[in-house]
Amino acid sequence: MNKFLEVKELDIITGNPNFKNNEKYKYLDTVAFENLIEFIHQFTTNEEVADVLDFMRISYKRNIGNIVSIKNYVGLIQMKNGYQIQILPKINFTNSEDLENRNTKKIFLNMLRSMKDFPSKVFNNSNIQVDRMNLYEIFINMYLQEIRRLIKIGIKSDYIFKEDNLNYYKGKLLTSQHFKINLVHKERFYVAYDEFNPNRVENKLIKATLLKLQKLTTSAENSKKIRQLLVFFEMIDASMNYIADFSKVRINRSNKDYETIMQWSKVFLLNKSFTTFSGNNNSRALLFSMEKVYESYVAKHLKKILGEDGWNVSSQDRGYYLFTKPRLQFALIPDIVCKRGERTIIMDTKWKKLVNNERINYGISQSDMYQMYAYSKKYKASEIWLLYPLNDEMKEHSEISFNSGDGTTVNIYFVDLENIQSSLEVLRNKISQF
Q1: Is residue 386 within 8 Å of residue 372, measured between CB atoms?
Q2: Per-residue pLDDT tens over the stretch 63-83
Q3: How far is CA 197 from the centre of its chain?
Q4: Contact between residue 91 and residue 418 where contact means Cβ atoms under 8 Å apart
Q5: Would you tell me how many other CB atoms lie within 10 Å of the CB of residue 429?
Q6: Is 52 exposed, middle or buried (0-12, 13-18, 19+ CB in 10 A)?
Q7: Is 35 exposed, middle or buried (0-12, 13-18, 19+ CB in 10 A)?
Q8: Is 34 in contact with 40 (CB distance < 8 Å)?
Q9: Among 96-100, 204-208, 219-223, 251-255, which is the least confidently predicted range?
Q10: Is the backbone peptide bond immediately before 326 cis, with ω within 30 degrees of 0?
Q11: Are 48 and 62 in contact (CB under 8 A)?
């Protein structure tokens, strides 16, 4: 049985074998499909605003049965039967087709690097065989790159307290234990001492992670790298109590090199995620909200591009509230606020596919427009930009704007993720014309 399924946002998954070869659906065998339904019901998040319907939607379709619609989360799910589902973002390419999703994965990885809570901001794309690895294997590869970097810097040692019955005197004699154990062994000494060695808690967790990944990986390349790295941890004991050992880790200046690695180790050992999603003991999941990934990616590039023109660009600004009396209520948190002198521009990113139909306002949400109007009035900003990802249907619509008649203009701009640098430079030029 093929235990791997690759899908994209907006795809529909079915467990009905009659639709196994239907182009409109992605097929999972009955057992795997039932496990997916169970997994969706177990969806949990740390965010109050998140909802299972923003993740995957289960519905019933006549003559087909239950179907699962892919929503705004991307990443990889491994269910309890070992079946893996890789969910990739829906990215449109202007000059080429991405039949093997190679470019999609590369762009997605670059987008992830922009997120402040995603480790491995510095990794070598050329060392990762994107076309031959699924996302989980790519993440394993990133972790292994971090370990190689640590080894080059040097694995840290520490003074470890030890008790032992030695043939020579060392440290401090533990009198009661010594006389109890060595009554007939006058040549021995039961002592306590501090030994400088690498068997510290961070290294124990790394070794435990490597041993676990050695069993999980299906990549020959990753498997080879893990065997090579384990050589450097031969004298280190693997952690046996992950939670207790993670609680002992304190990142400071002396062990700053371990910070990213400990984040990765926690992901792999405790089935945690970098984002708000949490898995359970029967499944592993590395899932990311594309709303947040897209926002972070665009904001990172805008800070650089607009910053060169003297703009002060901030993300997730919390300067205003919708109501101020009797107390501050309903915080306004625009994605991006750009200020230069007396001029303020509000930008909001929306990970949504607009449609070429003016009668329905291109699919722009009415609540989003209310939100933009509130931003305009509170920030005293007449220029509002809604930034949507470019799609094939909207390529010809370079100019869409809405004017309230009382000083607020909402402009629509489509970001080309394949060419994000040049795309946002075009946006900068448009802003300079206002």
Answers
A1: yes
A2: 899 999 988 888 888 777 778
A3: 34
A4: yes
A5: 9
A6: middle
A7: buried
A8: no
A9: 96-100
A10: yes
A11: no
